[in-house]
Amino acid sequence: MIPGGPLHRGGFVDQVIPGRAEGASTPLLQVRDLTVRLGPVAAVSGLSFDVHRGEFLGIVGESGSGKSVTAKAILGLLPKSAEISGSVRLEGEELLGASSETMRRIRGDRIGLVFQDALAALDPVYTIGDQLVEALRAHNDVSKKVARKRAADLLGEVGIPKPVERLDSYPHQLSGGQRQRIIIAAALIAEPDLIIADEPTTALDVTVQKQVLDLLAEVCQRREAAVMLVTHDLGVVAQTCDRVATFYGGLLVEEADVFTLFDNPRHPYTRALLRSVPRLGEDSPFEAIPGSPAQIYISLTACPFAPRCEHAQPVCTAGVPPEFWEGTHRHRCVVAGRGEL
Ligand SMILES: Nc1ncnc2c1ncn2[C@@H]1O[C@H](COP(=O)(O)OP(=O)(O)O)[C@@H](O)[C@H]1O
Ligand code: SF4
Ligand SMILES: [Mg+2]
Q1: For a Cys-Cys bond, which of 8, 20, 76, 228 suits 322, CB 3.0-4.6 Å?
Q2: Ligand 1 atom 24: the closest Cα is on which residue?
Q3: Could you give the domains of the chain?
Q4: Which of 35, 38, 45, 248 to mutate to test the pocket of ligand 1 (most atoms within 8 A of CB)?
Q5: What is the DSSP string of 41-97?
Q6: What are the per-10-residue average pLDDT scores of the chain (341 residues)?
C-alpha cells in the first residue's frame, strides 16, 4: 500500500463517506469495501459508496469495469460461485450473505430493477395488462378489476398514451421506448426505495433515451426514491445525475457531485472519458481512449489505469492507489493526490 499522505483515509468497513450535507440522514444504501471475485477475475475491488434517499447516482465506466457486477452484488444476483466480501446495507440491514428468500423479498419490495433489455424482461405471450395486474396482485390484496385500474394509472404515470387501450397490447406491439417505460412502471409497483437501472437506455435512440431518463428522475423525486443509474455514457449522466462515480478495472477511481466531476475531474481516466464525449455544437471529433479496457486477474496490485495512462510513474504500480479526498470529491490517482496533475 502506498502511503496516502495527509488526505488519505483508510478503507474501513465503517468508514464514513463524507460529502453529503452535514447532518444528512443515514444513507439508504451503504456499500463498504465490496470485493467480488468471479473465478480468476477480480471484478470489483474494495468498493465503498453511499446512496441517499431522493438521490440520483450515476455509475460510469467502460465495458468490463465492474458496474453490472456491483449492481448484481447489491441485488444478490451473482452466481453462487462468486467470492464476495465487504458489506452492503439497506437502511442498516446487511444484504451480503442474506438468504435467497430475504433477497427475493428485498428485490420485490425495496429495490426495483430496470435492465437494458426491456423485451427480454417482458413475457411475449401475455398482454401488458396481464403482466402488470399479476405483479400488482402479488404485492397488494386487491381484485383483478382494482389491479387493472391501478395498472392503467401506472401506465399513465410513466407517460404511456391511451393507457387503458395499451393494457391489451402485447410487448411486440410497442416501441422500444414504450417497453422501457413499462419496465419502469413494473419496477414502481412495489414502491421501491431504490431503483437500480443498468444501462436502461442503451438500446434506445437519443430522444427517447432522454425521455426515459427524465421520467426516472421525475418519478424518483416525486416518490423520494433513489436511483442508481449504471451507464457507459457520460452524456446521459450529465443530464440526470446528482452525483457520479467513475469505475475502472473494478475500482471506484473518482466520485464527486456532477458539476465538480465535469468541471474539475482529477483522475486521468475520468478526464479521458470526458474527452471522449462528443459535445453538441463543437466541431472537434471526440477522442477515443487509447489502449484496451482493463481485465484484472487474481487481484489488483497497482493502479489499473497505469498501462493506458500518459502520467504513469513507478509509484503508480507500487500498489493500489489509496483514496484522496478534496472536500466531498474523492479519487484514487497518486499523481493527482500529490498535486502534480
Ligand atoms: N459471470 C461471470 N463470470 C466471470 N466473470 C465475469 C462474470 N460476469 C462478469 N465478469 C467479469 O467481471 C468484470 C466486470 O464485469 P461487468 O460488471 O459486467 O462490467 P460492466 O462494467 O461492463 O458492467 C469483467 O471482467 C467481466 O468479464
Ligand atoms: S495513479 Fe498513476 S497511472 Fe493511475 S491514473 Fe494516476 S497517474 Fe495514471
Ligand atoms: Mg454492464
Answers
A1: 8
A2: 64
A3: 27-110+195-278+292-341 (3.40.50.300), 119-189 (no CATH)
A4: 38
A5: EEEEEEEEEEE-TT-EEEEE--TTSSHHHHHHHHHT-S-TT-EEEEEEEETTEE-TT
A6: 33 48 73 96 96 94 93 94 97 95 91 78 91 89 94 90 95 90 86 91 78 83 90 86 95 97 96 80 66 77 95 96 95 96 91
